[in-house]
Write a structure and sequence with these properties.
This protein has 2 helices and 3 strands; from the N terminus they run βββαα. By secondary structure, it is α+β, with helices and mostly antiparallel strands. It binds zinc ion (ZN). Residues 8, 10-11, 13, 27, 29-30, 32 line the site of zinc ion.
């Protein structure tokens, strides 16, 4: 059963509502019917995190380890 987050536009009361066929859409605080459905904070946060830190290359030539033998020498060792 889907659980949605709503906010009452009359008294600004935020609450979660388990939506079923028999669910009455009203504010539990003031019984108002002007409810505003809230967006999932989780989903919005995930979308905004495009281009996170890329994973470091595994193995292969090094080139950035500062090994005195030159780039790639550390993997030979
Ligand atoms: Zn209310």
């Amino acid at each position: 059963m889907p659980l949605y987050e709503y906010r009452c536009q009359d008294c600004d009361h935020g609450f979660e509502l388990l939506v079923r066929e028999s669910t009455t859409f009203e504010c539990p605080a003031c019984r108002g019917a002007r409810l505003e459905k809230q967006l999932s904070v989780f989903a919005v946060g995930a979308e905004g995190r495009s281009g996170g830190r890329a994973p470091m290359a595994m193995g292969g030539g090094c080139g950035s380890c500062g090994h005195p033998g030159g780039p790639g020498s550390c993997s030979v060792n």
